[in-house]
Structures
1.
Amino acid sequence: MARSAPYRIMGIDPGTNYMGYGVLEVDGRTLRSVVLGDIDLHKLADPYTKLRHIFERVGALVDEYHPRDVALESPFFGENVQSMLKLGRAQGVAMAAALSRGLTVSEYAPSRIKQAIAGIGSAPKEQVAAIVCRTLTIDRPLRRLDATDGMAVALCHYFTATSPLAAALGDERVKGLGGGKKAASKGGSQSWEQFLRAHPDREIK
C-alpha cells in the first residue's frame, strides 16, 4: 500500500494579547513540530489594529508553512461578556485569514482539547504544555504557554481526524464547539444525538 504524503496542521489558540500557534507535520504515524510561537498583540492599543495584525500574521504563517488544515480553539463561555466578544473577534479574524487561503477550518472547545491531550477536560495549561513537549520531543523552554496551547489544538485535530469514530462517520465533519457534528452537505449542523437517531447502525454498544 502506498504511503500517504506528509501533511501539516496548523493549530491556533486565539487571544487578544498573545495568540499562540503551532504547525504539526504528519508523516504516516510520525508527528513532528515544525514551528510554534505566539503573535504578540499586547502593545497594540487600538482593537482594530489588533484584528488587522492577526489577519496579516495568520495569513503570512499559512503562506510560509503551507498547512492543509487549520484548527482553532473556540471561545469559552465566561461571565465577562466584553472579553468573550473580543476573543470571538480575534478567533473570527484568524479563521477568515485561513479561509481566504482556501483551507479547511475546524474548531474545538477548550475542554475537548485538554481531554484529547491530557485525558481530562479540566487539565491545567502546564500539564497540557508538558505533554505536548514530551509527545513532540520539544526540549527548549517556552516563554509563554500560548505556543504549546496552539500546538495542542493541532494535536487535538490530528487525534480527532484519525480516530476510529471519525473513520466510521465518513464525511461527517467534526464541530468542536459543543462536541456535536456538522454535516458537510447542505443539511447544516446536527447534534450527535440526532445523527445516531438517523444512523442507528453507527452506534457502538
Note: DSSP finds seven helices and eight strands in the chain.
2.
Amino acid sequence: MAGNLHQRKRSRRIYLGNLARGFFLILIIIMILNLIIPDRDYSEGENRSLAKRPAFSPEALADGDFFSDVDTWYSDQFVLRDSWMNLRFTAQKLQGKKETDGVYIGKDGYLMGRPEEADADRNRRTIEAVNAFAVSHKNMHMTAVVVPAAACIMTDKLPDNAPVYDQIGAIRNFTDQLDDTISVPDVISALQDKSSDQLYYKTDHHWTTYGAYTAYVAAANDIGADASERYMDYTVSDSFQGTMASRTGCRSSKDTIDVCEPIETDLQYVVTYPQTGEKSASIFKRESLNQKDQYEVFFGGNYPTVEIQTTVNNGKSLLIFKDSFANSFVQFLLPFYERITMVDPRYYYDNIDTLMSSEKVTDVLFLYSGDTLLDDQNLADTLEAAKEPSGSAGGNRK
C-alpha cells in the first residue's frame, strides 16, 4: 500500500517535471522563432501597424526606453499573435468576463466599445468655434447630428450591470449649447425607438446602413432632404469583422454590410478625391471588400476632402464636417444636392472659407459620432483657422 502511494507520488513528480520542461521548451522555441522570423509590418487581424525591433543605443538604455520598446516589439511580433488573441478572448468569455480591452462582451455576439467621459475643455472650445462659425455664416442653413455609441443605444445587448458613461447626456449638453440658428434633429430618440434592430455592427464601432438610414429619416426635414425618398438596399458582404473584433481578438462573430441606392430616379454623380486626383462614378469602393476593413466600401475610407457633383439642378451645395460615421450616411443625401463636399478636420489643413467660396456652399452639416466629437479638437482647429490669413490654416493643430 505504502509502495503504491510512493509510486504514485513519484509518477506525479515525473509528470509535473516533464510538463514544466515541455512548457519551457515551447517558450524557448517561441523566443527563437520571434528572433529569426522577419517582423510583420501590419496585423490584418488587429487592423493596425506593428512595432518593429528597436535599435540599441546607450541613450535608450539609460533612460529605460530600450526595454520598453523591446517589450512592445515582442508583444506585437509574438509568433501566432492573432491566434493567441483569439484564444485569450475565448477564455475570457468562458470565464464570464464582461469587458476586455475597453470593449464590452455583450449578448448575442455584440462587442461594444466603452464610451469615455467627455473632455470638458475641448467641448467648450468646439462649441465656441462652431457658434462663431454659425454667426459668421448666417446666410447658410446649418444642422448638427451627433451619434451616440452603440453601448448607449442598444442597452439590451450590454452585459448585465455593465457601467456605461452617460454619453447621451453629454451629447445633449453639447447640442443644447449650440447657436439657435443650428438645427439639431432628435436622432437619438429615433435610434432608441429602433434599438431592438441592428443599428450598429456586432464587431465594429460604426452604425450599420440601417442605423444611418434611421438617423437620416429623423433628420431629413432639418437637413433639407425628403424622408419619403425610396432606396434599394444590397448586401455586399457577410464576412465583415470590424474594429471591436480587432481589438479583442474575437474571430467568431461576423457582420453583414449593406449599401443603398435611390430608385425611381435617373440620378448620376461623380466623386472626386482632390488629394489623389481620382474620380469615380460611385461612392462605393467594391475593392475594399477584399481587405480587412470592409467598412471602407464607403468612399474607400477617410480623406481630407471628398467632392461629389450630381445631376441634381437645384443650386444647393452641402458642406459636411464629419468623421467616418458620415461615410455611410451620405448615400441617402445624393438626390437632394447639386454638390456635396465632405471635410474631415482630422486631416484637413487648408482654409475652410476658401473652400466654401469655391464650392458655393449653401448648407452645412456637422455629422459626428459622440466618441469623436466629445474628445475632439480638430474641428475647432479647422473653424478657427478660417479667421487666419490664407496659408496659416492648421498651424495651431496638435
Note: Residues 390-398 have pLDDT under 50 and may be disordered.
